[in-house]
Amino acid sequence: MNESMLCTKTHEYVLEQGNKYEVGITDYAIEQLGDIVFIELPEVGAEFSKNEVFATIESVKAASEIYMPISGKVVEINEAVVDSPELLNDENHADKWLIKIESEADQVEFADLLDYSDYKEEVE
Amino acid sequence: MTKQTFLHDKHVALGAKMVDFAGWHMPVQYSSIIEEHKTVRESVGIFDVSHMGEVIVQGEDALPFLNKIVPQDINKLVDSKAVYCQLTNKQGGLIDDLIIYKLEDKKYLIIANASRIDEDLNWMVRNKVGFDVQIINESHNYSLLAVQGPKACELIQSLGVEELPKFFSIKRGELFNINLWISRTGYTGEDGVEILVRNEFSEYLWDKLMEAGQSFGIKPIGLGARDTLRLEAALHLYGNDLDEDTTPIEAGLSWSIPRDKKEDYNGKAAIEKQLKEGGTKKLIGFRMLDRGIARHEYEVYFNDEKVGVVTSGGVSPTRGDNIGLAYVKTLDDLAVGSTIKILIREKFYNAEVINKPFVKKRNKG
C-alpha cells in the first residue's frame, strides 16, 4: 500500500495522482472480506458526493457497499477487477484501485480522513 | 455469552477468521472459502461442528415418543441406522431438521441444529407427557468432527477402521485408542464421516487426524465453505430455508415422508393434506443468467409479479456460476426451465429455474 494514501474509517482510500485521485479499498478491507467474487462499479461520468455509495463488492459471504472518501466525478474505472474480481485477493497483482475521479473537494472533505499509518494503527 | 467449542483455541492458532454463529464463536474460514470448498470437493477437509446438538432419547417408550414427534416411521429404523427427520409442530411447520440414529433397542441419538437445540428440547419435553422416556441433552459433553471429501473414507480406513459404516449408519469405533462413534453422514454432498467424541479427546483427535491426513491433502474447513458446499448439494439450512411457517412438503422434503405411517404425529393432518394437494409455496433451485449474486431475502419475480423470496444464494465454486434456493408461489407455469427475475439492489437480474441438487452428490457409499 502507498504510504501517502488517505483512508476512511469504512476502509476506503483515496490517493492523489496529479490532477486526479485514485479510489479503492484498503488491504485490511480486502483481508477481512476474503474471496472477492463480484465488483459493481459506476459508469464513467457519474458524480458522487462524499460518503455516498459508489460501488458494491461481494465476497463469498456477503455484499458490502463502498463509500466515496471525497466527492468527485468518475473518469476511469478498473475494468480488469470487474472482469476478474479475484485480482483484489492476488498478492502479486498491483492495480487494485476501483475508480479514478476528478475532484474539487476542499479541506473540509479531507479533514476526517486518516493517514495510512494512523489507519493501520486504528484497525490493528 | 458466546460459547466456544473445545477446539476454539486451535482454530485461532491456525489463523482462522472467527465469527459468531448461533451463539458460538466459530471459524468461518482458515485461508479462503473457495480454496477450502475445492479441498472438500477434490480431496478431504476436516470441520469442527461441535456446536451441533446431541440429544439421547431412551427408555421404554423411546420408540413411540419419537414416532409422535417426527413424520418419519421410526419403527423401520434398525440398530446402527440413521434417518433424516423433521421435528414438526401441530400445523406441520418445521421446528428443526434432525438426524435420528438408533444406537440400540430403546436408545436413540438425535443430532440437531445448534441454533435450534433449545427450542427442540422445550418441544420434546412438552411432548413427553405420558411417555416413559428420558431426554438427555449431551451437547455439552460431545464434540463433533466432520471429515468429508472423496478421500475421507480412505483416510479413516488407513487408521485401522477396516469396515466403515454404510451410508446413513453409525458404529462404535476406535481411532488413536479413543473410543468414539463414526457416522457415515455429512453436510457437503461428498462421501465422508462425522465423528462423535467426548470433549476431552477432541483436540487430540483433531491433531492426529490432521497429521495422518497430511498425505491425503487434508485441510481445516470453516463454516463459510460448509455453507457453499451444502448449497451446491441443495441441503437445507435451518433459519434460511426452513422455519416454523414452512412444512416439509413445501421445503421439497416429501421424499422423506412415509405415506403409510400408522402412528399419529404432530402435524400429520396438515402434512397429509399437503401431500395430496401441495403446499402454498415451493422451494425451487435457480442459477443466475445475468451477472449478480442472489442472497437471503432478495425478492423473486415471475411475469412481472412478485412470487417469492430467495432463502439461500451465493457463488458455486464447483460450477463457476451463481446459484440459489427460493420459495415461490405454486404456479403451474413456474417450473424447471422458467426464467425468473431476482431483485438485487433495486435492479432486476435474470435467473433460470433448474433442477436440484446443483452439484451431483457423491455420498451413496
What's a quick, concise take on this entry?
The complex is a heterodimer of chains A (124) and B (365). With 124 residues, chain A is an alpha+beta fold. Chain A has 4 helices and 10 strands, in the order E-E-E-H-E-E-E-E-E-H-E-H-E-H.
Give an overview of the whole structure:
The complex is a heterodimer of chains A (124) and B (365). Chain A has 124 residues and is α+β, with helices and mostly antiparallel strands. Chain A has one domain: Beta Barrel (OB fold (Dihydrolipoamide Acetyltransferase, E2P)). Chain A has 4 helices and 10 strands. In chain A, strands 5-8-9-3-2-1-10 form a 7-stranded antiparallel β-sheet. A 3-stranded antiparallel β-sheet of chain A has the order 4-6-7. The longest helix of chain A is centred in the C-terminal third of the chain and has 8 residues, at 116-123. Chain A starts with 5 loop residues before the first strand and ends with a helix. Chain B is an alpha+beta fold and 365 residues long. Chain B folds into 3 domains: 8-50 and 140-232, 2-Layer Sandwich (Gyrase A, domain 2), CATH 3.30.1360.120; 54-128, Alpha-Beta Plaits, CATH 3.30.70; 280-365, Elongation Factor Tu (Ef-tu), domain 3, CATH 2.40.30.110. Helices cover 21% and strands 34% of the residues of chain B. Chain B contains 8 helices and 19 strands. Chain B has helices at residues 8-13, 33-42, 62-69, 117-127, 152-157, 199-213, 223-232, 268-277; strands at residues 17-21, 24-29, 45-48, 53-58, 82-88, 94-104, 107-112, 134-137, 142-148, 170-175, 178-183, 192-198, 219-220, 281-288, 299-302, 305-316, 321-329, 339-344, 347-354. A 6-stranded mixed β-sheet of chain B has the order 10-11-12-9-3-13. In chain B, strand 6 (94-104) and strand 7 (107-112) form a beta hairpin. In chain B, helix 2 crosses helix 7. Chain B is globular. The relative contact order of chain B is 0.16. The model of chain B has no long low-confidence stretch (mean pLDDT 97). Chain A binds chain B through residues 32, 34-35, 37-38, 40, 56, 58-63, 89, and chain B through 17, 28-29, 32-34, 224, 228, 291-293, 295, 314-315, 345.
